[in-house]
Specification:
The protein is an alpha/beta fold. Helices cover 36% and strands 19% of the residues. It has an eight-stranded mixed beta sheet with strand order 3-2-1-4-6-5-7-8, with helices on both faces. Helix 3 packs across helix 6 and helix 6 packs across helix 7.
Length: 174
């Protein structure tokens, strides 16, 4: 499994949350991290380096003109390959980390798993690449994540919400 971290922000932004995100990713055994760079590319590269101090290896990826997880997945497609992956914004922490969500995803392996709330964290299998291609063809402005999730469910693929501890994933319909 890989992690795709979505970086934007300003060069002056506090990188401590990004550092904690990388540590939480390493804590669950994910060591292959792609960082999609936004406007603060030089500051992020300088702060994170090769990722070794966080326990991960980092590959830097250019952001497409359009921000957001749908566009980032398209940008990172070659790097992601056929691997399962999690997308995670640089500036939001999931309380308690993503360990339970990773475990639920690995056990159930839906096409997509959404971490509820404002986190903006999503887990995907390689089925998402077909969805991004289809949505991109229909929306020249770029794929919105809700359209990608809707396409997956329209194809009969499982999309679930990673619900709070103890209640297990629940099916969703975007």
């Amino acid at each position: 499994m890989k992690a795709l971290v979505l970086s934007g922000g300003s060069p002056e932004a506090d990188r401590s949350v990004l550092f904690r995100v990388l540590e939480q990713i390493a804590d669950v055994g994910i060591t292959d991290v792609g960082i999609v760079l936004g406007g603060a590319a030089d500051a992020v590269r300088a702060a994170v380096g090769d990722g070794a101090r966080f326990g991960v290896g980092v590959t830097y990826l250019p952001r497409s003109r359009r921000p957001g997880p749908g566009a980032a997945v398209g940008t990172a497609r070659d790097w992601l390959g056929d691997d399962d992956f999690v997308t995670h914004p640089e500036d939001v922490l999931v309380p308690g980390g993503i360990g339970e969500q990773v475990e639920a995803f690995r056990i159930r392996r839906p096409a997509a798993q959404v971490v509820p709330g404002p986190a903006g964290v999503y887990f995907f299998t390689d089925a998402v690449h077909r969805a991004v291609d289809a949505v991109q063809a229909a929306a020249p402005g770029g794929p919105e994540i809700t359209d990608v999730l809707r396409w997956l469910t329209d194809q009969g693929l499982e999309v679930v919400s990673a619900t709070p501890a103890g209640s297990g994933p629940a099916p969703i319909h975007p």
